[in-house]
Design brief:
single chain; alpha/beta; YqgF/RNase H-like domain-containing protein; globular; Nucleotidyltransferase, domain 5; 6 helices
Length: about 190
Amino acid sequence: MDLIGFYWVCCMIDKRMKLVKPAILFQQALKRGATKQGRLLGLDVGSKYVGLAVSDDHCKIASPFSVLERTKKNIDIMAKDFQMLVAGFSLAGFVVGYPFNIQGQSKVDTVQVKLFIEDLSKTSVLDGVSYTYWDENYTSRCVETLLEPLDINPVDAKTIMDKFAAVGILQGYLDNMNRSLVSEDLDLE
């Protein structure tokens, strides 16, 4: 399935939360940024935890934020947490890490991301919130490599890894979108 077909299928599945193309979400954030903060929230969705990173109000830099525990039973609580973050940070939307290239990745990883977004959408708490998927390949592995030489408690290392994997996802997205914006500006000159 090509990328456009993937987005179309996702839009048909996720009627409550709005799946948008990466460039559209970035444009929404920049438009909001003209009048008020238009930040983005990066999500690294795992089977037990969701790492969170937040952008600055100029959508240039991603910073680690938090880790939420993920269970089937707490999806309503998580949705309300996200709702508070949307209001508190004036979020324009979510950048959700997604393993597009599934070589070496379990198909379970791709399914769990979709199910998480679908479960959030079903709560109706985040109606109208835009999100996009962004390639998360190697983000966790990069963070693992950075943490290996440090003598960090394994429990602490896991939360650090989840937060910084979210940073990697969001920063990759921001860098790509900002590069595209600069390229467009150069093309117009």
